[in-house]
Amino acid sequence: MREVRLTAVGKPLEEAEVALPQIGSSDVLIRVVASGICHSDEHYRAGISKINRLPVTLGHEIAGRVEKAGADIKHLTPGDRVCVHYLVHCGRCEFCVRGLEQFCRTGQMIGKHRDGGYAEFIKVPGRNAFVLPDQIPFEIGAIMMCSSATAFHALNKARLKPGESIAIFGFGGLGFSALQLARAFEVGEIYVVEINPAKLALIGELGSVAIDANKGNPVEQIMDATNGKGVDVSLELIGSARTMRQAVQCLGALGRAALVGLTAESMSLFPYAEVINKEVEIIGVSDHLASEIPALIGFVQSGKLRFPPDALRFVELNAEQINASLDALQNSIEHVRTVIRLAPK
Ligand SMILES: [Zn+2]
Ligand SMILES: [Zn+2]
Questions:
Q1: What residues contact residue 237 under an 8 Å CB cut-off, 6+ apart?
Q2: pLDDT tens, 143-176?
Q3: 139 CA from centroid of ligand 2 (Å)
Q4: What is the model's pTM?
Q5: Residue 245 Cα, ligand 1 centroid: separation in angstroms?
Q6: Closest listed ligand to the CA of 95
Q7: Residue 49 burial by CB count (10 A; 0-12/13-18/19+): exposed, middle or buried?
Q8: How far is the CA of 27 from the centre of ligand 2 (A)?
Q9: How far, in Å, CA of 189 to CA of 140, rounded?
Q10: Are 176 and 167 contacting, i.e. CB atoms less than 8 angstroms apart?
């Protein structure tokens, strides 16, 4: 089969012809139909995120059809449409048995620790493959398995309830899904903090309150808009100490701040005034869970979570085209997602 893989950090991806993966009794072999090109793939290629196994086939946003199912697989048969949960886990350790597989001691990320979806076929454990309803196109089935799934996990971790207010810091891929999912949770007012004019306009068009951080401290703007009460939940999706601090400061009593963005900076708070006195909670969010995928598929199927078709671009399974889209991701601030589309057989 053909694949496009990372052979050296800092170098363009290369095409290779390799043997079809052999599956075990609990695995499925999937014929890839769509594979999303993610910002983190660009970080792997550039060496910003460490890769410790080379060569590796990138790609962790995958949808396709079951080609072959191992003898122990009961929920899938060849021809089924599926999307892939990207965290491969042992299923037996103290975390896996509690449904917390993101802490599995032998957990592996598809497209990083093991070969991913920039290929004609991929082998995954059967429990990582979820049936993709016919109404959801393969390309949507692929891209919803990363940032949308993590946005959903963040809202779950923050215990967002109907009627509560929320402030979302950052309107990239995560924020775009978080806004729609928050609405699906039937929340009250949604505030979205941004600096990009086009994104601020879109936030308004989507019926949420755009907070322009260029026009002054977003915390003060949120406090004004909520009559000094603050919000119940905040999501930090940018990955900066400054916005993390703001995400805590804009909370009201018993508020929960979910931190999703990554940063190596340290963050400072005034413990009494900003945390203790209001009994606020600061919650870390890492990836998402297999148990959340069926509900996520449901939100997409019911149209509550949408991806505008004009925001999708397609390339072939071709190293030159994939490298060019990874280059474009380096400076991109747009809501454009590129998907590798393979011709269905
Ligand atoms: Zn991704
Ligand atoms: Zn485990």
A1: 151, 154, 168, 169, 170, 172, 174, 175, 178, 260, 261
A2: 999 999 999 999 999 999 999 999 999 998 899 9
A3: 29
A4: 0.94
A5: 26
A6: 2
A7: middle
A8: 16
A9: 27
A10: no
